[in-house]
Amino acid sequence: MFTRRFTFPALLVILNLSAATIAVDDDIKCLQGIKGSLADPFGKLAAWTFSTNTSAAFFCQLAGVTCWNDNSTRVLSLELSNTSLAGRIPESLKYCNSLQSLYLASNDLVGPIPPDICTWLPYMVTLRLSGNQLSGSIPQGMANCTFLNVLDLSDNKLSGTIPDELARLQRLQRLSVANNDLSGMIPSDLSTYDAESFSGNKGLCGYQLNKLCKKSTNTRIIIIAGVLGAVGSLFLSFTLYWWFSRRSHQK
After folding, report:
1. From CA 194, how far away is CA 176, in angstroms rounded?
2. Could you tell me where the beta strands, DSSP code E, fall in 186-241?
3. Cα torsion angle, 112, 113, 119, 121, sign
4. How far apart are the C-alpha atoms of 199 and 180, rounded to whole Å?
5. Mean pLDDT taken over the chain
6. Which end of the chain lies in a sparser environment, N or C, as judged by fewer CB atoms within 10 Å?
7. Is it the case that residue 145 has pLDDT exceeding 50?
8. Nearest CA to 206 among 239, 184, 181?
9. 152: nearest Cα among 170, 179, 171
10. In what order do the strands lie in the sheet with 150-152?
11. Residue 24: its pLDDT value, please?
């Protein structure tokens, strides 16, 4: 009876091949999901076919897809701007977990920015989603894209406030949330970005826009209540002092 033995180098080769196969399958699943979930009125993704291709990195030759190098099977960048793609940002992007650049600008994307997008794409360096119809708030989880250099969310319909957490993106060099429906005070920690980064949001205020922030109704109520409380305390103190003084004189 023979016992089959694998040497350590052979085992490493097997494990590497297995990991590479899983990576290829994930990237294919990612690209298939993008094509299947987005409307493509002008057939920009028509050449994205998967059933007849047998080479490991065939998808690196697809339009808009860039891989790490000619011999790599991992998707590095997706350039799908100005393609009239319509729909929500595909959840299948989570399978392109080596992606560093995602360009989806000037399309017809709708709905919110997925709150887990930075969990899906932890190595993302460039994210351009400008010129769509995206709505909802800017996810606080965007701060988890710790390698992010460029974040362009301009010309959408985003609302709410700018998360303070964006200030944690220490590598961020370019930020634009211009021309949305954002409101509230611009976080003071985002002081390195100029007015152009925030312009076109009527509800935004802060020194970056040279626009003072009005105190909220709640703040005004608190201030008024504090003033009235102070006046009431003084009046009560004066009344008690007068009463005790009068009693002392009567005695």
Report:
1. 10
2. 203-205
3. positive
4. 9
5. 84
6. N
7. yes
8. 184
9. 179
10. 65-67, 75-79, 101-103, 126-128, 150-152, 174-176
11. 79
Angle at 92 between CA 88 and CA 98, to 5 degrees: 120
| 143 close to 119: Cβ distance less than 8 angstroms | no
Q: Are 45 and 86 in contact (CB under 8 A)?
A: no
d(CA 220, CA 188): 22
Do 74 and 126 touch, CB atoms closer than 8 A? Answer: no
Contacts of 100 (CB under 8 A, 6+ apart): 76, 77, 123, 124, 125, 126, 147
DSSP 118: H
* Range list of β-strands (E), 60-191: 65-67, 75-79, 86-87, 101-103, 108-111, 126-128, 133-136, 150-152, 157-160, 174-176, 181-185
CA–CA gap between residue 3 and residue 26 (Å, rounded): 35
The CB density around residue 40, as the number of other CB atoms within 10 Å, is: 18
* 167: its two tokens: 């200030």
Q: What is the pTM of this model?
A: 0.77
Q: How does pLDDT run across 59-84, given as a tens digit for each residue?
A: 888 999 999 876 667 999 999 999 99
Q: What is the C-alpha separation between 55 and 176, in angstroms, rounded?
A: 40
Token duo for residue 184: 């509230």
